[in-house]
Amino acid sequence: MTSQSQGIQQLLQAEKRAKDKLEEAKKRKGKRLKQAKEEAIAEIDHYRLQREKEFRNKQTNVMGSQGDLSAKIEEQTTETIQKLTSSYHKNKESMMKKLLNMIYDINPEVHPNFRQAA
């Protein structure tokens, strides 16, 4: 009987060691998974930061070009307004004289299609 109880004790101890090894393997697996997850998150964050930086650079290039374009359009508009204003002041008197002459110089005539009633 003692040999049977010793055999049972050995089996129980072997079972306990196997269970401990299994628990330890599960813990290592859990640690590896957690580490892999952390590495993946770090890689994703790095990639995201890189893409955001590229986007900001492109956006700056495009917006910078638009800013230059906007300033150029503003300058052209101001120049055109100045030209129109100077042209207005330059031609104002002569146009007023022409209009008034047309209004004052009326030559009353009978229209050729007019028929007198008999």
TrEMBL record:
<dbReference type="Pfam" id="PF03179">
    <property type="entry name" value="V-ATPase_G"/>
</dbReference>
<dbReference type="GO" id="GO:0046961">
    <property type="term" value="F:proton-transporting ATPase activity, rotational mechanism"/>
</dbReference>
<dbReference type="GO" id="GO:0097401">
    <property type="term" value="P:synaptic vesicle lumen acidification"/>
</dbReference>
<keyword id="KW-0375">Hydrogen ion transport</keyword>
<protein>
    <recommendedName>
        <fullName>V-type proton ATPase subunit G</fullName>
    </recommendedName>
</protein>
<comment type="similarity">
    <text>Belongs to the V-ATPase G subunit family.</text>
</comment>
<comment type="subunit">
    <text>V-ATPase is a heteromultimeric enzyme made up of two complexes: the ATP-hydrolytic V1 complex and the proton translocation V0 complex.</text>
</comment>
<dbReference type="GO" id="GO:0016887">
    <property type="term" value="F:ATP hydrolysis activity"/>
</dbReference>
<keyword id="KW-0406">Ion transport</keyword>
<comment type="function">
    <text>Subunit of the V1 complex of vacuolar(H+)-ATPase (V-ATPase), a multisubunit enzyme composed of a peripheral complex (V1) that hydrolyzes ATP and a membrane integral complex (V0) that translocates protons. V-ATPase is responsible for acidifying and maintaining the pH of intracellular compartments and in some cell types, is targeted to the plasma membrane, where it is responsible for acidifying the extracellular environment.</text>
</comment>
<keyword id="KW-0175">Coiled coil</keyword>
<dbReference type="InterPro" id="IPR005124">
    <property type="entry name" value="V-ATPase_G"/>
</dbReference>
<dbReference type="GO" id="GO:0000221">
    <property type="term" value="C:vacuolar proton-transporting V-type ATPase, V1 domain"/>
</dbReference>
<keyword id="KW-0813">Transport</keyword>
<feature type="coiled-coil region">
    <location>
        <begin position="5"/>
        <end position="39"/>
    </location>
</feature>
<dbReference type="GO" id="GO:0030672">
    <property type="term" value="C:synaptic vesicle membrane"/>
</dbReference>
